[in-house]
């Protein structure tokens, strides 16, 4: 009898240890990630995947932030269409001629792409998503180059993101006023810091744009930030999470930000990736592939455990793509392979 009791104690001890271990592997989502704290110094990549040491408590560049706040429309808007798929036309806020003299077509969808920190119009995300969108359908692709703020220290860039987002929203309102292009034809796509930026742009337009797609929204300094991307920022907001790990190295926020949030391969690490940079960047790679193939499907999950153990059994929803009438709600697990088109 004593031996049986001892065996039960051993089994229960092992089971408890196992549960404690697996609990730490739960993908970070709204129940867990808000409590995640970052150390003062972290590593964060630029647009080329080069890591930089970031001091989250560095002194802010108040002069730059004041300038951005006074003139939030001080961004570069580059238009690509099927008539000029490689050579951009510059659209200028409050310059009607720059719109009328361009190839902008108010009768087709408009997709806006916003890059992340230490990036610009030349960063790969812009070209990859642009080409996928133009190959898929006749549309306007507007690449937002916000390098003036994006090239500043990380915490300064974080502080200025809402103002740049408001500037983008004001620019789109100007385009709407000049051309009649409906907000229901606009899809705002942002990566990392750019994800929060396009959320603020949609908020400036009172959530009237058709879609906001947040590609692995940046995590550091955003967990408790009221300016982060939210479900109310568009008619439909989708989050795609690829590096929301519970460890310090996770670059994405890893928590629900939209109406529907996809935790790709669990939302922490991606097939074929050995670094957080690879995990993080795969968000926009996956998204571009879904524009072309619309092939990555998620299943709704009722718990974090289901996301972790790939046991979600709820309704299915296609991840990504360019569907402006798309809608869904909840958390989804989607799985990919390690090579394009994933």
TrEMBL record:
Pfam families, per the entry: Lipase
Chief location of this protein within or outside the cell: secreted
Signal peptide: 1-25
Signal among keywords: yes
GO biological process terms on file: lipid catabolic process
Subcellular location: Secreted
Keyword vocabulary terms for this entry: Secreted, Signal
Lipase domain boundaries: 74-312
Superkingdom: Eukaryota
GO terms, molecular function: lipase activity; serine hydrolase activity
GO cellular component: extracellular space
InterPro entries: AB_hydrolase_fold, Lipase, Lipase_N, TAG_lipase
Keyword Secreted included in the entry's annotation: yes
Matches recorded under Gene3D superfamilies: alpha/beta hydrolase
Family membership noted in the UniProt record: Belongs to the AB hydrolase superfamily. Lipase family.
This protein's name: Pancreatic triacylglycerol lipase-like isoform X1
């Amino acid at each position: 009898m004593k031996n049986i009791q001892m065996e039960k104690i051993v089994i229960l001890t092992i089971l408890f240890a196992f549960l404690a271990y697996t609990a730490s592997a739960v993908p970070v989502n709204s129940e867990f990630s808000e409590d995640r704290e970052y150390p003062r110094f972290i590593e964060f990549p630029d647009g080329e995947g080069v890591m930089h040491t970031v001091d989250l408590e560095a002194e802010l560049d108040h002069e730059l932030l004041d300038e951005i706040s006074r003139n939030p429309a001080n961004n570069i808007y580059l238009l690509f269409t099927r008539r000029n798929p490689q050579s951009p036309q510059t659209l200028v806020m409050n310059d009607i001629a720059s719109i009328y003299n361009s190839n902008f077509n108010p009768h087709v969808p408009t997709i806006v792409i916003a890059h992340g920190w230490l990036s610009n119009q030349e960063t790969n995300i812009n070209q990859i998503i642009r080409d996928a969108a133009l190959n898929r359908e006749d549309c306007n692709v507007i690449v937002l180059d916000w390098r003036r703020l994006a090239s500043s220290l990380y915490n300064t860039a974080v502080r200025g993101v809402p103002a740049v987002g408001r500037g983008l929203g004001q620019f789109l309102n100007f385009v709407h006023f000049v051309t009649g292009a409906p907000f229901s034809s606009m899809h705002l796509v942002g990566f990392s810091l750019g994800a929060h930026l396009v959320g603020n742009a949609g908020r400036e337009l009172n959530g009237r744009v058709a879609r906001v797609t947040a590609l692995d929204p940046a995590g550091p300094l955003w967990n408790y930030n009221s300016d982060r991307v939210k479900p109310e920022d568009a008619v439909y907001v989708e989050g795609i999470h690829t590096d929301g790990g519970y460890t310090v190295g996770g670059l994405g926020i890893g928590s629900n930000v939209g109406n529907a949030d996809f935790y790709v391969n669990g939302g922490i690490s991606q097939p074929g990736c050995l670094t957080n940079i690879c995990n993080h960047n795969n968000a926009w790679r996956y998204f571009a592939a879904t524009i072309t193939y619309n092939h990555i499907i998620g299943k709704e999950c009722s718990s974090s455990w289901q996301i972790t153990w790939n046991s979600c059994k709820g309704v299915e929803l296609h991840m990504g793509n360019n569907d402006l009438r798309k809608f869904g709600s909840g958390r989804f697990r989607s799985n990919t392979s390690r090579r394009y088109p994933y």
